[in-house]
């Protein structure tokens, strides 16, 4: 026969069981909104080019959303990049997107249609500026690009916005001081490899597949953007205040960097929507973004940097009401 627990032992056992039950309950409450039906319907998510991080992140996030909201149909829409993404969401042709903070601010400064309706869901990860040249190139600084054939990104991309400002800071007119080419990450690497272009700009998460693949069979390097240069750029104000000096870690492209970090600049990416998007849907989507960080991060290294403590900082746009509800629900 089992020996009866002493009275104190039973009480402690019950208290321990109750604490464990509460802990499990709190965990489930954080993971899933108990007693609430998942949103359904259709949404459009504007991403980026096929070889960029936006598209890869969007595809993996769609899979995560399917698990949490099985009756929600998420349509991915390819895009030239941040500037196109912001315009689509503001106009209502897309419901959610990823866009760099400088592109969002530029759209707001230009008073683009629907700019006042833009809202933030989460601060995601940083884009790093890559200025790429063949290893044999004589280009050692931005100033050396004068007279070169330079790919400055697709017309509506965030890359175009950054490249234009970087060139102007270096005293180069992006229309006449170089031969400007509208290549993005989909065609820039091959253009560099074939000799059609001398250099190309890219702004994206680390690492970007298009550059990792190029490193397999072509020798290239990154031109540095040092802290003094970034300070000169920031002094222009406006959208430039969202740039910060940083270094590309040596682990980003090991075959290219050979253990050496590269001075450059970064800009934050935001998950953006509109104020009229359903708060319940946005709350659920925000939850999935935070919950899926590690799973998506296994394939998109940049996603590992999504952090609950910094996700709420979506400047220059205010948080969407649904996102605010989620962050309040998990506030310690």
Short synopsis of the structure:
The protein is of the alpha/beta class and 332 residues long.
Provide an overview of this structure.
The protein is α/β, with parallel strands linked by helices. 37% of the residues lie in helices and 20% in strands. The chain is built from 12 helices and 10 strands. The protein is globular and about 60 Å long.
How are the SSEs placed, and which strands pair?
Blueprint: H1 7-31, E1 41-46, H2 53-68, E2 72-77, H3 82-91, E3 96-100, H4 101-109, E4 118-134, E5 149-151, H5 158-169, E6 179-181, H6 188-194, E7 199-204, H7 209-214, E8 220-222, H8 227-234, E9 243-248, H9 254-257, E10 262-274, H10 279-291, H11 293-297, H12 321-329
Parallel strand pairs: 1-2, 1-3, 5-6, 5-7
Antiparallel strand pairs: 3-10, 4-7, 4-8, 4-10, 9-10
Helix pairs in contact: 2-10, 10-12
Instruction: Please estimate the helix content.
Output: 25-40%
Tell how many strands the DSSP assignment holds: 10
- Cα end-to-end separation: 46 Å
SSE pattern: HEHEHEHEEHEHEHEHEHEHHH
Radius of gyration: 23 Å
Largest sheet, strands/sense/barrel: 10 strands, mixed
| General shape | globular
Report the portion of residues in β strands. 15-25%
Structural class: alpha/beta
Estimate the mean pLDDT confidence: 91
Detail the poorly predicted runs: 1-14, 16-31
Tally the helices: what do you get? 12
